[in-house]
UniProtKB/TrEMBL annotation:
Residue intervals of the Lipoyl-binding domain: 587-662
Domain Biotin carboxylation: start-end pairs: 2-446
Name the record gives this protein: Acetyl/propionyl-CoA carboxylase subuit alpha
PANTHER family xref list: CARBOXYLASE:PYRUVATE/ACETYL-COA/PROPIONYL-COA CARBOXYLASE (PTHR18866), METHYLCROTONOYL-COA CARBOXYLASE SUBUNIT ALPHA, MITOCHONDRIAL-RELATED (PTHR18866:SF33)
GO molecular function, one term: ATP binding
Residue ranges the record marks as coiled coil: none
Membrane-spanning intervals of the chain: none
Domain ATP-grasp: 121-319
Length: 667
């Protein structure tokens, strides 16, 4: 079981995380990458790297033969699957071992057994682990499933046996809806997992998601490394994870941990794994949900409170080493929180964001597991999660405060992220009071979440940062800003003008660093003494009181973007100079009202119109697949379809024209 070189069958932040674990033990790493990831950081940082196919996961990260061939070509002795892709594929684990390589994970049989939700629940019951009432029988006929549904009563869930992530799951609140729910769950399960088998399970409406980390070696020892709470979810996808699980009765916590160890021992589990539960606070009861036979996305919070490196121990266990600690050696210190950072726009129904990262300035003194850096391109081929921010503090209140502080210092340009949304979750009183559960988001934001608008003072500070970037403190704008400047009324110095790209009236800037005055369009005036932009920090005095804020000024193609730290978090403001304003007017702007363009790179899934069709504004014209999500693209205006530039199956670039309309007013 000895090996010195590990092939990492994954990408992004988890590939970099495993590389760090390899370096810690003096092992070499092999990166496999797709055409789309050729310039990614995890490729550059590996000791060896092999391209295994095209951008589509089926051509690369799910291509078992290409991965095994890369292992043979580079002399790798072991394969680490990370999470996602092939990490819980028993066939892949078996193929790795059949090739004479070490699979860094559990036995293929354990993966297969726990991969079937039906078999996993049977194993849990046999090990004395509570499970939700329901039907998990082999008879999958409609008649039997409907009979069991009636006996179970509503509400209940129809769930795919081979599923996960909410796919193949339907909630039934009325028995009359059961036939359709079963049929649609089966169809989705077949499409997503190649297995139409489903089971029925009682629905716990206000349950929490609590999980226990286990670690087993090849010598029969299994330990638990504490618990985590992952209850804050959107569409069954975790948003924020924390350890240990807060507001959990200690007797229940102890039983959960012991049950997880019993189950892992019963199936002869090795490596890192997670036993997941639903906890019903109203009943004070917990129920087995599933077992993830891999490293979890949220493993860093367990590492933070235990000091135990899970990746290191995965590698050691794969080499045959026994666990060098007992259950009594596992100590828990403080509280940790992990925030999943995704390239998406929560204010627009979590619309995926793509493009080149032009600014990447994360906070200092916190752990950041990331797959990107400045200059990285976020494409549409893979999951939108690009990083994880992990904080650790003596208690939960301190961890929440530290997480918010870290987000407030995080500046990113070029690609929109969900940081403001995650900040709103952390700052919500219901999160602090631990009133949330797995379906709680609609209660936290009943009308949906919208990003708070910029404070007028913050807009002035953003314009001030841009002004100081263009006119260093003490310099005259007449000497530094070129010829497009206007004079102020007689007797006053010249002014520089900056336009918020969403407004018509400019912010006027007078003076210099010794006394810089910004006049807002509404007439509000702010004067800053000793104003300076030093590196990425805007500072000065207002009425004699010093202030200092993080400020990054980045050039975009047609404007400047100022990332400014504010009391409400990090904001991004787009501003134009007078030159930019003239160029914008000269080119007639960038919007074309009668043209539907791709908002991001993607693959065309459907074209729902034909030439000559008359459409209404808002009608879906094209369905685009990007980052595993389907985006319905609406008609920008009412009119007649005159040109179609794409077809199903086409891969299109961001901003590529898709459909041309002759607006209704012309027809």
């Amino acid at each position: 079981m000895s090996f010195t070189r590990v092939l990492i069958a994954n990408r992004g932040e988890i590939a970099r995380r495993i590389q760090r674990g390899c370096r810690k033990l003096g092992l070499e790493s092999v990166a496999v990458f797709s055409d789309a990831d050729r310039d990614a950081p995890f490729v550059a940082e590996a000791d060896h790297a092999v391209c295994i196919g095209g951008a589509a996961p089926s051509d690369s990260y799910l291509n078992v033969e290409a991965i095994l061939e890369a292992a043979r070509a580079t002399g790798a002795g072991a394969v680490h699957p990370g999470y996602g892709f092939l990490s819980e594929n028993a066939g892949f684990a078996a193929a790795v071992e059949a090739a004479g390589l070490v699979f860094i994970g559990p036995e293929p049989d354990a993966i297969a057994r726990m991969g079937s939700k039906i078999e996993a629940k049977a194993a849990a019951e046999a090990a004395g682990v509570p499970v939700l009432p329901g039907y998990r029988g082999e008879d999958q006929s409609d008649a039997r499933l409907l009979q069991e549904a009636e006996a179970l009563g509503t509400p209940f869930l129809v769930k795919a046996s081979a599923g996960g992530g909410g796919r193949g799951m339907r909630l039934v609140s009325d028995l009359g809806d059961a036939p359709e729910a079963i049929a649609s769950a089966r169809a989705e399960a077949q499409s997503a997992f190649g297995d139409p088998a489903v089971f029925l399970e009682r629905y716990a409406p206000r349950a929490r998601h609590v999980e226990v980390q286990v670690l087993g070696d090849t010598h029969g020892t299994v330990l638990h490394l504490g618990d985590r709470d992952c209850s804050l979810q959107r569409n069954h996808q975790k948003l924020i994870e924390e350890a240990p699980a807060a507001d959990l009765p200690e007797a229940v916590r102890d039983r959960m941990r012991a049950a997880a160890v019993r189950l892992a021992q019963a199936i002869g589990y090795r490596s890192a794994g997670t036993v997941e539960y639903l906890y019903d606070p109203g009943r004070g009861e917990y129920y087995f949900l599933e077992m993830n036979t891999r490293l979890q996305v949220e493993h860093p919070v367990t590492e933070a409170i235990t000091g135990i490196d899970l990746v290191e121990w995965q590698l050691r266990i794969a080499r045959g080493e026994p666990l060098a600690l007992t259950q009594g050696d596992v100590q828990f210190d403080g509280h940790a929180i992990e925030i999943r950072i995704a390239a998406e726009n929560p204010a627009e129904n979590f619309h995926p964001e793509t493009g080149e990262i032009t600014l990447w300035a994360p906070p200092a003194d916190v752990r950041l597991d990331t797959g990107v850096e400045c200059g990285s391109v976020v494409g549409h081929h893979y999951d939108s999660m690009i990083a994880k921010l992990i904080v650790h503090a003596p208690d939960r209140t301190g961890a929440i405060r530290r997480a918010i502080t870290a987000i407030d210092a995080f500046a990113v340009g070029g690609v929109g992220l969900n940081l403001a949304y995650q900040r709103a979750l952390l700052a919500h009183p219901d999160f602090a009071a631990f009133r949330h559960h797995t379906s709680y988001l609609p209660e936290m934001f009943p009308g949906g979440w919208t990003e708070s608008s910029a404070d007028p003072r913050d807009m002035a500070f953003a314009a001030m940062a841009l002004h100081l970037r263009l006119v260093p403190a003490g310099a005259s704008p007449w000497e530094s800003l070129g010829s497009w400047r206007l004079t102020a009324p007689a007797g006053q110095s010249g002014a520089a003008f900056y336009w918020d790209t969403t407004k018509d009236e400019p912010i006027r800037m007078y003076g210099s660093g010794s006394g810089l005055t910004a006049i807002q369009p509404d007439g509000q005036t702010i004067t800053v003494e000793s104003a300076a932009l030093t590196g990425c920090r805007l500072s000065g005095r207002i009425d004699g009181v010093p202030f200092s804020r993080i400020a990054y000024v980045v050039r975009a193609p047609s404007h400047w973007r100022v990332h400014l730290q504010t009391p409400a978090g990090m904001t991004a403001t787009d501003l134009r100079t007078l030159e930019d304003q003239h160029l914008q007017r000269a080119t007639g702007g960038s919007g074309v009202a009668d043209l539907l363009s791709a908002p991001m790179p993607g693959a065309v899934a459907e074209v729902r119109v034909a030439l000559g069709d008359r459409v209404k504004a808002g009608d879906t014209l094209v369905v685009l697949e990007a980052m595993k999500l389907l985006q319905s693209l609406p008609a920008p205006v009412a009119g007649v379809v005159t040109e179609i530039y794409c077809a199903p199956g086409d891969t299109v670039a961001g901003h590529a024209p898709l459909i041309k309309l002759d607006p209704e007013e012309n027809t």
